Amino acid sequence: MSSFAVIVVFFVVVAVRPRIRLGIWDVFHLVLTSVVTPRSFCLKNNLLTNSLCDPSYLTLGKNPFKNVQTTFGTFFCVPLCYFLHFDNADTNTSFSNEEEEEESMNENEINNAIVEKEAVTRDVSIESQLLSSGLGRKKAKEDGDDVVPTIDCRLDEQQFRKEIQTAAKTVGFFTLLNNPHVSDEDIDAQFRLSRAFFARDTVTKEKYSPYDASLNSGYEYKKQVRPSTKLADEKESYQVTAKEKNMWNRWPKDMEKKFEFEKNTRVFMAKSLRLAQMVIRCLQDGETEDDVAEKHSLWTEESQCTLRHIHYPPFRSMEDAEEQSRLGYMRAGAHTDWCCVTLLYQQVEFGNGGLECASNPRKNGFENTEWTRIDHTNKGAVTVNIGDMLSLWTNGSLLSNLHRVRMPTGEEALKSRHSMAFFAQADESAVIRAKGQETLTAKEYILGRIRSNFNN
């Protein structure tokens, strides 16, 4: 790009400046940012597509345009960056070469995950002991002592914060009503996409969205083996990890024309992240010096947040489900989540029950821990549970919660079950630190946990 073209662009911006209400120094900043930002950065973080889908995207995460007026950044700065570097062949080739190098490293990364980190081995050990202790298969009480609290987001801020913290330190599970970020309509719309995704045949799903455990992305069918059962979960899932390279050739392109699957899923994840950050801010208050909520992003090179669409297929018969249950299978074996918080979206129709939770065995021991059923849910409600990552950050002040999806009984076995889970996982380089324990990065932690579930 010649210097003459840059000068022309600059004077064009100066000419339209009064209309967009930008100061002269803002103009210098915008043009300079567009000139010096590598095109590869825009490509890797897909700034143009993301900002068009959700204009607030430019205010999230870490990017050179974070302080740029959103609308102007979307429709001028990012396209200008692409244009200024359009003829830079080195940038284009370096992007593709980098992708190839990083993909070739992924397999080594997952095999050499830092499982010797004490925090990883301790949490994996808890899940493994669920099998040896019998707690993982222990039947839930009909009337459990632990009741999952329902919290209305319309409460005043102080009361809302108090109720969330109380629930997090006792049951570890709670349900949010009337949240300000993800509406009933948003949830219903994403469930329609999820159902349409799983309605396709397995060959098509695997073709368009091949699974890669090292990327924590794509479609899998009964591949997850929990340490608590040593058996594959009776489910299929499609994981969207909010990183461009992880989703390369994993979006269901055959659904794009009719459903705009990628665009709508990105928007849903952005709304879910805002809700998760709201919850984390309430939970981290006074528990850690780090601003944990701000260590989460979407669609950057650091991002690890994931949206999992889950389908539990119906069984051929009620007898088949009973036999699988007798052999020790679960729709989802007992486990804790690896993230900071999980937002679980459920449906209320018959056949969608089966979720059960229990307190972390570190609280009362394996023998004294009981399971509680969470079969009921209100439409639009979002069930939240604490994950291991936030438990580490708070040095165990907040304990992650055990949960599982039991095998269906009776006519439930003949019905599909659908759910979606948004896992708020801190960015790769975020350092998890707490007094008296070793430090590790969020990437190290996630890789260790993936290996314990998918490297069997």
Q: Could you please describe the fold and organization of this structure?
A:
The protein has 456 residues and is of the alpha+beta class. It folds into two domains: 3-84, no CATH class; 117-454, B-lactam Antibiotic, Isopenicillin N Synthase, Chain (Jelly Rolls, Sandwich), CATH 2.60.120. It has helices at residues 3-20, 24-36, 39-45, 47-53, 70-84, 89-111, 118-132, 157-170, 184-199, 202-208, 256-259, 261-284, 318-326, 361-364, 388-393, 442-454, and strands at residues 150-152, 173-177, 218-221, 236-241, 306-312, 332-335, 341-346, 355-358, 372-373, 382-386, 402-405, 417-424, 431-432, 440-441. The strands form three sheets. Strands 1-2-10-7-12-5-4-3 form an eight-stranded mixed β-sheet. Strand 1, helix 8 (157-170) and strand 2 form a beta-alpha-beta unit. Helix 3 crosses helix 6, helix 7 (118-132) packs parallel to helix 16 (442-454) and helix 9 packs across helix 12. The radius of gyration is 23 Å and the shape is globular.
